Amino acid sequence: MSEPAAVQRNDEHITLFAEQENIHPLKVSGTFRKLKWFFLVNMLAAYYIAPFLRWDRGPNAPGQAILFDIPNRRFYMGPIEIWPQEVYYFTGVLMVASLLLFLTTAVAGRVWCGFWCPQTIWTDLFVMVERWIEGDRRKRIALDKAPWNFDKIRKRVLKHSVWIVISWWTGGALVLYFADAYQLVGGLTTDVTTFLGQIFSLQIPTMPVYITAWVWISIFAGTTYLLAGIAREQVCIYMCPWPRIQAALTDPEALNVTYRYDRGEPRGSVKKQQKVAATGAATGDCIDCNQCVWVCPTGTDIRLGMQLSCINCGLCIDACNNIMAKVGRPTGLIAFDTDLNIERRMKGDQNSFKPVRPRTLIYLVALLIAIGLMGWSLMNRTVTGINVLHDRNPLYVEEGDGSVMNGFTVRMLNMERKNRRFTLHVKGPDGAKITKVSEGMFVFKKSPEGLFIVNVKPDTTRELRVIVVLRAGKANVRSEPLTFFAKDLETGEQLSRSDFFKGPGQ
Amino acid sequence: MAHKEIDHITGTETTGHAWDGDLKELNTPLPKWWLTIFWITVVWAIGYMAYYPSWVIGDKNYEGYSKWTARADVHKALEDAQARLAPSFAKLQGASLADIRNDADLSRFATKAGKAVFGDNCVACNGTGANGVFNGSGYPSLVDKDWLWGGKLEDIIETIRVGIRSGHDDERLNTMAAYGGEDGQLTAEQIRNVAGFVLSLSGSTLEGADINKGKAVYLDDGGCNACHGDEGKGGTADVPGAPNLTDSIWLFGKGNVVSSITHGRNAVMPAWDKRLTPAQIKAVAVYVHSRGGGQ
User: Fold this and answer.
1) What pLDDT does residue A7 have?
2) What is the pTM of this model?
3) In this structure, is residue B107 part of a structural domain?
4) Is the model's pLDDT at B16 over the cut of 80?
5) Rounded to an integer, what distance in angstroms lies between the CA atom of residue A362 and that of residue B135?
């Protein structure tokens, strides 16, 4: 056995922590840039406008189309109203969302990251502001290096101010989903005018009325400013779990932004390539202009292959296509493609792309099932309900006269916006009858037919104590099915719930 | 040795540490802000330790700048809960029984509050379901319709307030004397006969008992009818608290009738007026009443 080599140390130069290099994406135009603008404009518009849309639900109900009413435990989305016990709908929404994510990733890689992720959208917006104030890539790099003169301070103050306004508006829009938007905007405006009035009349400002909203706006404004303005690609590379997860969801057939090295290499500037070509050696199409790196919002060099920092936005494709057109070479040197295709082409085989394969089919089927189940359950959602809970202790009570009593807790549910009245009766062992329906000491009245009438207010549940007695002589039961019926006095709609009647019988 | 060593395959810098000859570690530096956040958390932790109780010194601990304790939090939560419930209890205290019956909200509050009071004070004897401990244990079921001292809400409130044979000035009091033993009023044979008679009232039999002789003992020698009535139907307004002997409910067990007569029965329920507030007593009575047996 040979001696292990002595550990060599060159700790002197090693940097374990790297300074963040500011990335200044170059402006680019093209198909993917247009797509990104399209999604940015539409998604931001939807986000900012949605809280102001109204939806008429009649009296006693909020008129906001999308409202997460946390104090009252109600979530409204257009015609859909969700109660806390239906929170599984959110599970369904999350399942549909994640399956959609899986499917798009299996077909075309991390297009979520490139086009739809809030981090991408807001960063794009912030970079747009930056470019508008400080100029394009070259000017911004120069400004970074420039000394702190008046011009730099002016530009920086302006840029951060606009960022803060956008951030504030982002947080402001978010809180509007949790309260009546028009009322809250009015309240916040009053808070501001009160504050300004106090400042200008040299008084100490009082606590704003909508302090909770202000705190949340500040939190979301702060995170927006921090993540989209300062952290940017650091979020994608170091904080976000998605780049790691995507590895498990994609396969060699998935389309990704790919540098076609079979065509591009060996790379070199046009002049250098002319010299190389003169010697008779092969040259590639890549002219090593670095445009693909400069336009990249995460500073990735796609020519190194697929990597964690690539968000699949396709801006490098736009940049490269523009250059290829200028130098008169075919476009598509960088394109949505697969490494498999590169290998095929290098072997002289045909390109092939298989969007339909077991993985995508499974995701698609699962997605359709999830959407179908969600739709089905929403369409068949009941707005009234009856729940029955048998007393666990005691299971039954033997009365002195030989009859048997069972106690139940019955919960009536009325999700509608109107008062509803029900009569209660049971079907079970012969002779079983409801003898008392009460809420504490309050005993409900009976209808002329001798059935207890229960009133349930709009948008509430009501818990009742129901006593069922099986009269003497019939009481030799052990456990027999017992069904509770609640019949709406106006509509005649009948709800039922099965339980058991317990007795001392053998 | 201040030269950079680049790994050829990955193009990444190595740390230069080599194991087994050629195994080298790649150096992928973390961003500086990551380090900054680490130091911020360290500073935060120090502040946290200063603000909250943290270090144990011997059998004491550093109390922290805030003097925070979980116990104080619980006390505060209890006080808050009591303060929150105070108006409802005040309303309950002032409410007449008719008010409670007709006010669904007040009735609901009384039931929930009563359940809590019952759970804290009553379940040890009367069971978690208010159905006694087991049939014949001597701890009565409060769920059935059989009441010795009355099943109306007013009666239940009074029973809870003064107790049964509790020593309270207004206690519910009667006595089931011991009829057997050396100096007993009845002989063992008489006791067996009268037990057989009593059981026959609800259709049961007792081996070796002469029911006719037993009936004579019930009406004459024993004088059982003085409390239980000529027909064995139990107590009246004048002589309250004596159980009905004609139904199928046996507080001390159907098999223990002979023993009950021989040794007597004088079970005790404590008075609660010192321990519970009038509003709490009202609440727990409402809860018991609502379990199904209330009249």
Assistant:
1) 46
2) 0.76
3) yes
4) no
5) 61
Task: Please give the pLDDT value at position B1.
Answer: 43
Phi, psi of A285 (to 5 degrees): -85, -20
Interface predicted TM-score (ipTM):
0.74
What residue segments make up the domains of chain A, in order of their start? 39-87+115-244, 251-346, 384-502
Using alpha carbons, list the distances in angstroms from residue A33 to A28, A46, A219, A382, B100. 7, 20, 31, 46, 71
Would you tell me which residues 295-354 of chain A have a C-beta closer than 8 angstroms to some C-beta of chain B?
Answer: 304
| Cα-to-chain-centroid distance, residue A110 | 16
Report the number of distinct structural domains present in chain B.
Answer: 3
| Yes or no, beta carbons of B248 and A12 under 8 Å apart | no
Q: Does B27 touch chain A (CB under 8 A)?
A: yes
Burial of A158 from C-beta contacts in 10 A (0-12 / 13-18 / 19+): middle
Q: What is the pLDDT of residues A211-247, one digit of tens each?
A: 999 999 999 999 999 999 999 999 998 899 888 887 7
d(CA B246, CA A164): 85
Q: How far apart are CA A477 and CA B78, in angstroms?
A: 46
Q: How far apart are CA A316 and CA A300, in angstroms?
A: 9
Task: Say which CATH superfamily domain A384-502 falls into.
Answer: Immunoglobulins (2.60.40.10)
Query: Which of B88, B107, B123 would you mutate first to test chain A, the one with the most A CBs within 10 A?
Result: B107
Q: What are the tokens at A278?
A: 């003169």
- Point out which residues pair with A442 in neighbouring strands: A439
Residues of B within 8 A of A405 (CB-CB) are: 143-144, 292
Could you tell me the two tokens for A272? 């250098």
Measured between alpha carbons, how far is A437 from A433 in angstroms, rounded to an integer? Answer: 11
Please tell me the distance from the alpha carbon of residue A192 to that of residue A233, in angstroms, as a whole number.
35
Contact yes or no for B11 and A304 at CB 8 A: yes
Q: For chain A, which ranges sit under pLDDT 50? A: 1-8
User: What is the extent of the structural domain holding B55?
Assistant: 14-61
